[in-house]
């Protein structure tokens, strides 16, 4: 009898907790202010602890990375070398269109955000938990950073700000797939929508009109269409694969990002907000 | 006062959050890290039974929700399930071997992570059901199996009610 009573109480507790979880999920889905404040407070409180632990554990982290990522670093080094050679070649080729040349120049260090101010930040932490790819930056609202601002590296777009406290901000990476980016294929009127796939460098682009003539190797930038959370012309990557669905009358593409989100040390937050 | 299980579990939860935020991120393996809050939920279930596992799992998941960017409440419901399941499994298996506890942790951890991803995808986070999920399930479950033994010790400490000051207060 006491056993069945205990089981009944456990069942009641579990049902109560499930209902509470559903309420929390609903409030979060509606963008409830208090839940956002809880996250900002947790970010503020835990940041100093994270910094301290990062300093203390840096030898352990280096040993860990060395043990598991040596091969990756060598492959990455080779890839960057090839990419560098390819870009140099493309820069000097006479057939490169004016727009592409402009994009390539931006890739080798010429600012691509124009007069829009940026805040230079350092990446202080990676993703907490195993889902929702994020990085934490060492500057926050006191530096003018606000939610939804685009975040770039010298190579291109990497994500947008999703949480801010006074001196910290959290960036959701574009590779995580939690949001879409409207893009434009340089040199064509083709536009589409890109989303992360969980890979550190590959995005999947879709909704491109099948009548548009696009090909692998073409550069993809943010379209900056009205209402888009990103300004126009932020480089995203190059098209590496192309699939056409004649029935749906649309083309989908694989986009290899210019920036590698697994190897971030610094990032710039573009102090830009969508118009309207 | 300090001897009350609820307070002791609160101390464990705060320690878990700090550990997850500060230490676990250092042990990143291709984007996958250990999940001590999930381990804490499972260990509470193993030590205290289904109800205890559900309650501790709920708060551990909520703590994870407050420090990550996934939907708020997703961790709470997934970890509550993992904690409750660990308690139920521990109750149905008659054993004393340490490796069986590790197996329970491995299995419930795998189910907890999968539930997290499946519910997340239902809530619009479709990227959670990518190829990466298999790697996350495997790595997190191995870490959970390794960490569950010290975690169950910590939970046993939390379960032991010893209010030393009570006689003096009478």
TrEMBL record, chain A:
Pfam family name, one: MreC
GO cellular component: plasma membrane
Coiled-coil intervals: 70-97
Protein name in UniProt: Cell shape-determining protein MreC
Keyword Coiled coil tagged: yes
Family statement: Belongs to the MreC family.
Signal sequence extent: none
InterPro entries: Cell/Rod_1, Cell/Rod_MreC_2, MreC, MreC_beta-barrel_core
Keywords for this protein: Cell shape, Coiled coil
Source species: freshwater metagenome
Keyword Coiled coil: yes
Domain Rod shape-determining protein MreC beta-barrel core as annotated: residue spans: 123-269
Biological process according to GO: regulation of cell shape
TrEMBL record, chain B:
InterPro entries hit by this protein: Cell_shape_determining_MreD
Residues passing through the membrane, by range: 6-24, 36-60, 66-87, 99-120, 132-149
Keywords tagged on the record: Cell membrane, Cell shape, Membrane, Transmembrane, Transmembrane helix
The keyword Metal-binding is assigned to this record: no
One record GO biological process: regulation of cell shape
Predominant location: membrane
Protein's cellular compartments: Cell membrane
Membrane topology classification: Multi-pass membrane protein
Cellular component GO terms, alphabetical: plasma membrane
Protein's name in the database: Unannotated protein
Organism per entry: freshwater metagenome
């Amino acid at each position: 009898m006491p056993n069945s009573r205990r089981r009944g109480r456990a069942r009641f507790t579990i049902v109560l907790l499930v209902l509470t979880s559903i309420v929390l999920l609903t409030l979060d889905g509606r963008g409830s202010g208090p839940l956002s404040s809880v996250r900002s407070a947790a970010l503020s409180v835990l940041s100093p602890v994270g910094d301290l632990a990062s300093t203390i554990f840096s030898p352990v982290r280096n040993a860990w990375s060395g043990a598991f990522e040596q091969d990756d670093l060598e492959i990455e080094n080779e890839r960057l070398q090839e990419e560098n050679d390819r870009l140099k070649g493309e820069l000097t080729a006479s057939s490169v269109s004016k727009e592409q040349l402009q994009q390539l120049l931006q890739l080798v260090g010429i600012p691509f955000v124009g007069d829009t101010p940026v805040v230079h930040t350092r990446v202080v932490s990676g993703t907490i938990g195993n889902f929702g790819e994020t990085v934490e930056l060492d500057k926050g609202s006191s530096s003018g950073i606000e939610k939804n601002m685009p975040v770039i590296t010298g190579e291109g777009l990497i994500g947008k700000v999703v949480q801010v406290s006074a001196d910290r901000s959290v960036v959701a990476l574009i590779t995580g797939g939690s949001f879409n980016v409207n893009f434009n294929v340089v040199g064509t009127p083709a536009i589409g929508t890109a989303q992360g796939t969980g890979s550190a460098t590959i995005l999947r682009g879709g909704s491109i009109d099948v009548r548009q003539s696009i090909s692998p190797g073409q550069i993809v930038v943010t379209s900056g269409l009205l209402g888009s959370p990103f300004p126009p012309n932020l480089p995203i990557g190059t098209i590496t694969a192309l699939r056409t669905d004649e029935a749906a009358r649309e083309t989908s593409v694989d986009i290899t990002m210019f920036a590698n989100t697994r190897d971030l040390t610094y990032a710039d937050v573009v102090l830009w907000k969508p118009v309207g | 006062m300090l001897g009350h299980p609820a307070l002791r579990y609160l101390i464990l939860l705060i320690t878990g959050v700090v550990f997850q935020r500060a230490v676990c991120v250092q042990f990143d393996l291709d984007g996958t890290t250990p999940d001590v809050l999930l381990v804490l939920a499972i260990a509470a279930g193993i030590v205290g039974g289904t109800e205890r596992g559900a309650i501790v799992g709920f708060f551990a998941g909520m703590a994870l929700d407050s420090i990550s960017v996934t939907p708020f409440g997703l961790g709470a419901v997934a970890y509550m399930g993992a904690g409750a399941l660990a308690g139920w499994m521990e109750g149905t298996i008659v054993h004393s071997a340490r490796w069986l506890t590790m197996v329970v942790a491995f299995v419930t951890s795998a189910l907890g992570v999968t539930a997290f991803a499946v519910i997340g995808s239902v809530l619009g986070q479709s990227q959670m059901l990518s190829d990466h999920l298999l790697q996350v399930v495997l790595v997190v479950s191995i870490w959970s199996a390794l960490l569950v033994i010290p975690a169950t010790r910590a939970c046993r400490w939390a379960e032991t009610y010893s209010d030393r000051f009570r006689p003096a207060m009478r």
